[in-house]
Write a structure and sequence with these properties.
445 residues, mainly alpha, 68% helix
């Protein structure tokens, strides 16, 4: 049956993604993003978002015009270098500069000049955490210290991140200027991790018979980078808040290293992400299961578990109660104040509209976690592609069912799912099998 053919199931997406050499989807992405940015500039109730939209709309519009020019040029000269994959990479880089980096720098400079409406609250929280880390050895305030704050400031007293996130706030603790804005360092960390991820995937060997497969992989890699950089949900987040982007980029790096058969390095990358934010921990668990299928579970776990624990230990030794209050009680809704994360996803609607709604939402979330655990036990992911898909769909379900969540968290599943096609290894394709005694792999791997 055609419905059982994996190639048939992917036909519609591949046709859309490869239309006009990928330029048609590029044009659609940039045009839709320009409209989103313009609407944000006019209607958003968050002033940093409005400022982002005013600048990003121009950047997206320029990228749209360039993509349209490339599309028209391709009709006249399909082999022109101006319409090939390298040119599309260049446009993507320019689009990221115009829609994420330029608004970020603009807002950082305005903020250094005295504007108080040029950063979201998480920027201030991370920078305060960096100051506390430098002065007291822990980024967290204890419950007594938070209770002593004026009621309107207690929320800002919480640092609901892992201890490693405070490192991005250290520059601000040393100097008060535009380049010490934590978003600048979020952007640098994100760019570094994505560069390493692209390099890891491009180093994946390709034989002469697999040139077409390698080209498709590189095109899929470009699409994944676009999702992590110029997609509005990522560009807006980086320019106005930014703390999720280095976490996401490190997770993408870990998956790229898994695709390159570097389990130890994959564990280190996802461990660094886990030392920044809890959102990386599910990715780490799935990667450990992937490592077990390749007899490398210990190597993955050493970094994936070891680095977050190493980051937690100093804070635990300095003030264990402060760590517990910020990292456990507050995210679970048991802090002195509640989280303002209230996007209208099913979990939030159930928690607020039904009797005992929080218990029902929590039960659904646990049930989803059990279902994913059963799937991992019965059919563990043996490839980086399967690992990325499980992480993407799993986080999508978790975000939908969490009683307190944000719309912006969707950047994790959307990017992970878009990243998955880039993780295919040409050397593993059925059309060109490589004997085990030549590849150095064992049948159990």
């Amino acid at each position: 049956m055609i419905a059982d053919d994996p190639t048939a199931r992917r036909w519609h997406w591949r046709t859309l993604d490869t239309a006009a050499g990928g330029l048609a989807l590029d044009l659609g992405l940039y045009a839709a993003s320009a409209i989103f940015a313009a609407i944000t500039a006019v209607t958003s109730t968050l002033l940093p978002h409005r400022a982002w939209g005013a600048v990003a709309a121009v950047g997206y519009l320029v990228a749209t015009l360039v993509a349209l020019t490339q599309l028209l040029l391709r009709r006249r000269s399909p082999t022109s270098r101006l319409v090939g994959l390298p040119a599309r990479w260049a446009v993507t880089g320019l689009a990221w500069m115009g829609t994420a980096l330029l608004p970020l720098l603009w807002q950082s400079i305005d903020r250094a000049g005295g504007r108080t409406d040029r950063a979201q609250e998480e920027v201030l929280v991370v920078e305060q955490a960096g100051t506390r880390l430098l002065e007291h050895g822990t980024p967290y305030l204890g419950p007594d210290a938070i209770a002593a704050l004026p009621p309107g400031e207690q929320l800002m007293g919480y640092t609901p991140y892992q201890p490693g996130m405070a490192m991005f706030g250290l520059p601000r603790a040393l100097a008060d200027t535009w380049w010490t804005d934590s978003r600048v360092w979020f952007a640098l960390g994100t760019a570094l991790a994505l560069t390493l991820a692209v390099a890891a995937l491009r180093r994946t060997p390709t034989t002469t018979d697999q040139v077409d497969t390698g080209h498709r992989r590189d095109a899929a890699l470009l699409r994944g980078v676009q999702a992590a950089t110029v997609l509005p949900i990522c560009a807006l987040t980086l320019a106005t808040g930014g703390d999720d982007l280095p976490v996401l980029a490190l997770c993408l790096l870990a998956l790229a290293l898994a695709a390159a058969d570097r389990p130890g390095r994959a564990g280190l990358a996802v461990g660094l992400a886990g030392a920044l934010k809890l959102f990386a921990w599910p990715v780490a668990l799935v990667l450990i299961v992937w490592g077990l299928t390749r007899r490398a579970g210990t190597r993955v776990a050493a970094g994936a578990i070891g680095l977050p624990i190493a980051a937690l230990l100093p804070a635990m030794l300095v003030d264990r109660d402060a760590l517990t209050e910020n990292v456990l009680r507050f995210p679970l809704g048991h802090g002195l104040v509640t989280s303002p994360a209230q996007s209208p996803f099913p979990g939030y609607l159930i928690a607020t509209a039904l009797p005992a709604g929080r218990l029902i939402a929590a039960a659904l979330l646990v049930a989803a976690g059990v279902a994913i655990a059963v799937r991992l036990a019965r059919r563990p992911p043996r490839t980086a592609v399967a690992t990325a898909l499980i992480c993407g769909y799993g986080l999508l379900v978790a975000i939908a069912l969490m009683p307190s969540t944000r719309f912006g968290y969707l950047l994790y599943p959307l990017t992970l799912l878009t990243w998955a096609p880039a993780l295919h290894r040409p050397v593993d394709t059925p059309s060109t099998p490589v004997p085990d005694h030549l590849s150095g792999r064992t049948t159990s791997a």
